[in-house]
Amino acid sequence: MVERASKFVLVVAGSACFMLILYQYAGPGLSLGAPGGRAPPDDLDLFPTPDPHYEKKYYFPVRELERSLRFDMKGDDVIVFLHIQKTGGTTFGRHLVQNVRLEVPCDCRPGQKKCTCYRPNRRETWLFSRFSTGWSCGLHADWTELTNCVPGVLDRRDPAGLRSPR
């Protein structure tokens, strides 16, 4: 009988702790958690003045964000895909070689990790990424490594007579 009563007390105490924790997390967002049972007004500005210690490190002018660039696949332009880890880069890289509608889509064979992405009427690649050229500049190459490595890799891949200035 004592064992049964101790189990009941344990269940009641556990339920009370659970409800207390639940109220602590959910209560402040509800009108129940506000003093007097009323929710704060919607126009309440939580940060009325900017933090004087915050220093704006990056400034992107609107004209830079709204500029448009033309990519000429039939010309000599090359897209170099810089993969940044944990940002969805693998999914986006696969999307570039598998799902983009192009005049000449990338040739992706089942079971093969790399796809062949040639320009129309030429055997030159228009995409430099791990899914088209492999890890040509090393595993998870950063901006500096790609800047130094890509021109040399592309020059080795293109036939000598067809090389154009990059």
Task: Give a verbal description of the structure.
The protein is mainly α and 166 residues long. It has helices at residues 2-26, 62-65, 89-98, 143-157; strands at 79-80, 127-128. The protein has a domain at 72-157. The protein starts with a helix and ends in a 9-residue tail after the last helix. The relative contact order is 0.08. The model has no long low-confidence stretch (mean pLDDT 80). The protein contains four helices and two strands. A two-stranded parallel ribbon has the order 1-2. The longest helix has 25 residues, at 2-26. 6-O-sulfation enzyme which catalyzes the transfer of sulfate from 3'-phosphoadenosine 5'-phosphosulfate (PAPS) to position 6 of the N-sulfoglucosamine residue (GlcNS) of heparan sulfate.
Distance between the termini: 86 Å
> In what order do the strands lie side by side in the largest sheet?
1-2
Q: What structural class do you assign from the helix and strand content?
A: mainly alpha
Percent range for helical residues? 25-40%
Mean pLDDT: 80
Identify the overall geometry.
elongated
Output the helix-strand order: HHEHEH
Most strands sheet: 2 strands, parallel
Residue windows where pLDDT falls under 50 for at least 5 positions: none
- Please indicate the percent range of residues in DSSP E strands (runs of 2 or more): under 5%
EC number: 2.8.2.-
Keywords: Glycoprotein, Membrane, Signal-anchor, Transferase, Transmembrane, Transmembrane helix
Function: 6-O-sulfation enzyme which catalyzes the transfer of sulfate from 3'-phosphoadenosine 5'-phosphosulfate (PAPS) to position 6 of the N-sulfoglucosamine residue (GlcNS) of heparan sulfate.
InterPro entries: Heparan_SO4-6-sulfoTrfase, P-loop_NTPase, Sulfotransferase
